[in-house]
Design goal:
With about 200 residues, this protein is mostly helical. It folds into 2 domains: about 60 residues, no CATH class; about 130 residues, Four Helix Bundle (Hemerythrin (Met), subunit A) (Up-down Bundle). Helices cover about 45% and strands about 5% of the residues. It starts with a strand and ends with a helix.
């Protein structure tokens, strides 16, 4: 998982286009009454379009997640996307984002439990660079196959473990009920995320 930053360069790149567009807006005298807020070229796109050396292509560069708080930021982002897509009756996207939200919550919990100062590089801890929820639960000491079936979170855990990253590559249509059930299992009052957050004192 990564956050993203936009990088532009030279006269014909995205960064330069952004700068020219903002200068045009400011220079044309547009204001909030005509659809634009009065701004300077250093606001908006200018804050994310950074110059590279001349001739370098536009790149969308990932900013690696490195703290529990950043994993939780992604957890909330995927949660909100999942719920919005569920409400919009787009179950495939809701299903995929709900699973990503659980994954990010688990990774935040792992960092908290193991007192990691940063997210390990893939050559140091390749087992953490995964979308496998079962493996991440096991890393926390939670063995899904031996989980108490009478525990209040057991039904939600069973539902969440049906999620696979590979589902995002399926062209089949997922029933809305499946996505709704996964969102409830992930985000509900007896859901997995609330349970993990309570166990590891995560502020979600």
């Amino acid at each position: 998982m990564h956050k993203w930053s936009f990088v532009g360069s030279a006269n014909h790149t995205f960064g330069a286009v952004c700068r020219r567009r903002f200068r045009a807006i400011v220079g044309s005298g547009h204001n909030s009454t005509s659809g634009f807020r009065a701004i300077t070229p250093r606001v908006g796109f200018e804050s994310i379009c950074k110059r590279q050396k001349a001739g370098a292509p536009l790149a969308i560069q990932p900013t690696p997640v490195n703290t529990p708080q950043e994993w939780l930021e992604l957890c909330r982002r995927y949660r909100d996307d999942a719920e919005a897509l569920r409400i919009a009756r787009r179950p495939d996207g809701a299903w995929l984002n709900a699973g990503f939200s659980v994954e990010c919550c688990l990774k935040a919990a792992i960092m908290k439990k193991e007192r990691l100062n940063g997210w390990p590089a893939p050559d140091i801890a390749p087992e953490l660079w995964t979308h496998d929820l079962r493996g991440l639960f096991k890393r926390l000491g939670i063995e899904p196959t031996r989980f108490d079936p009478n525990h209040p979170v057991a039904p939600a855990l069973k539902m969440v473990l049906d999620w696979r990253r590979q589902h995002g590559y399926s062209i089949g249509k997922l029933p809305l009920k499946f996505a709704t059930n996964l969102c409830e299992a992930a985000f509900g009052s007896n859901g997995v995320i609330e349970w993990i957050a309570d166990l590891y004192r995560l502020n979600i």
